[in-house]
Write a structure and sequence with these properties.
Layout lengths: L10 E8 L5 H6 L4 H13 L5 E5 L3 E8 L2 H10 L5 H7 L1 E4 L1 H11 L11 H15 L5 H20 L9 H12 L8 E4 L3 H14 L4 E4 L3 H11 L2 E2 L5 H7 L2 E4 L19 E5 L16 E5 H16 L2 H49 L5 H24 L5 H11 L6
Parallel strand pairs: 5-6, 5-8, 6-7, 8-9, 9-10
Antiparallel strand pairs: 1-3, 1-4, 2-3
Helix pairs in contact: 5-7, 6-7, 7-13, 8-9, 8-12, 13-14
Length: 416
């Protein structure tokens, strides 16, 4: 990374922690709220840090910025969270310059996410970038890098299937229902229990099936009413569970009890009934499968769907990485161009000055001098000469530092 894009003596760093080494409690200690983000950006600016972008999600907290030493960024993070420097160092990672840029590409494209191909992180990154820009804490390098990561993320989403298929059990449940039950919006659905997976499944059902026949039963009625209010569900008494099962087409069990809460004795209707048991341990007794009209699907079966999905997603990693390399190459080309652009600009200016002086001289010497034609030809030659120098400097076998020095010496250019 070239010196003119950063303040003297600084480097680009990525410092942070993620689900890979830090447990949920530790991640919580280093979580950065909206107000803390503003304070960190303000303090970083006061300390002379030219660019800083912060992202904080349930799975990671990271700072991407320019500093003389990564400890500057670590101190800023620890000063505005409840985590200590000692705790951070036990689980942290620090990347510098090109390694930091590469890490940002992996994070922003979902390759470093807990669920491979999860693109939620890109919106967090955009929001961190927006907040930094608002505080004038983004330099040309960071802006170009973030835009490159966004471009890579879009391409991976569009050109690969790395985010296809169900990856949460609740979403897998809904996919299973949609695949195996026709006219889901017209079916009666009964949710028994208020376990987290059950609630999420219910939310997904409301969203994807537009079903208005969802009933909720819970042993504690006020809990049921709270959830029902959120999703616009009908609440029925636990005492009515047998008659409610008789009316339902799909029964979702999310009770979280130690022993089965649904058994063969509770089912007396003859119409087809799909039961999803989303509880650990199992809350639906296996004896229900002796009934010809009942299909039982357990959490383990749905987890296999998500495991298979993640295995399939892994096949798309090489293509995603190839896209990252393409976009990174474009970014690095831009960096290289930024390195020698001032010299090329100064060279062009010097050649143009020589051209102007020569045209001025010829105008005085020649009566029928065609100034317009001479200008066109001269400008084309200048462009060709500067293009040759630019190509030479872009060549990876060229020592650009030595070449820049030579060009500046030969043409007596001002150091840019």
């Amino acid at each position: 990374m070239e010196p003119h894009l950063r303040a003297k003596g600084t480097n680009f760093y990525a410092i942070g922690l993620s689900y890979k080494k830090a447990d949920a409690e530790t991640r919580g200690h280093f979580s950065v709220g909206e107000e803390a983000k503003k304070t960190i950006l303000k303090e970083a600016k006061a300390q002379g840090i030219p660019s800083l972008i912060i992202i904080s999600t349930c799975n990671r907290t990271e700072l991407y910025g320019f500093a003389q030493h990564p400890f500057q960024l670590i101190k800023l993070l620890c000063a505005h969270t409840v985590g200590t420097i000692e705790a951070f160092e036990k689980v942290a990672y620090v990347f510098k310059n090109s390694a930091a840029a590469h890490h940002l590409f992996k994070v922003g494209t979902g390759l470093d996410s807990q669920i491979l191909g999860d693109f939620e992180i890109i919106s967090q990154l955009k929001s961190g970038f927006k907040a930094a820009k608002k505080k004038e804490m983004v330099n040309p390098f960071s802006e170009r890098l973030i835009n490159a990561v966004i471009q890579a993320s879009k391409r991976i989403k569009n050109e690969t299937e790395i985010s296809s298929g169900a990856t949460s059990v609740s979403f897998a449940s809904v996919q299973y229902i949609l695949k195996h039950v026709s006219d889901t919006s017209e079916k009666n659905i009964l949710l028994f229990g208020t376990g987290k997976i059950g609630r999420n499944t219910c939310e997904n059902l409301v969203k994807h099936t537009k079903n208005e026949h969802i009933t909720l039963i819970n042993r504690t009625k006020d809990k049921a009413e709270k959830i029902a209010g959120k999703f616009n569900l009908i609440v029925k008494e636990y005492a009515n569970i047998q008659s409610e099962i008789a009316e339902t087409d799909i029964l979702i069990v999310a009770t979280g009890a130690q022993n089965p809460t649904i058994s063969k004795q509770l089912i007396y209707s003859k119409k087809p009934l799909l039961i999803l048991d989303l509880s650990i341990p199992k809350n639906v007794s296996n004896d229900v499968t002796t009934l010809p009209n009942v299909t039982l699907v357990h959490l383990d079966d749905l987890s296999k769907i998500t495991d298979n999905t993640l295995q399939r997603r892994k096949q798309h990693i090489p293509k995603a990485e190839a896209i990252i390399e393409e976009v990174k190459t474009e970014f690095n080309d831009w960096l290289e161009t930024r390195k020698f652009a001032p010299t090329i600009k100064a060279l062009k200016h010097k050649l143009t000055t020589l051209k102007d002086a020569e045209i001025d001289l010829q105008r005085k010497k020649q009566i029928d001098f065609n100034e317009e034609q001479a200008t066109i030809i001269s400008d084309r030659i200048i462009q060709k000469i500067t293009n040759h120098f630019a190509s030479h400097l872009k060549d990876e076998n060229t020592s650009s530092a030595e070449s820049l020095e030579l060009i500046q010496k030969v043409f007596q250019l001002q150091n840019s």
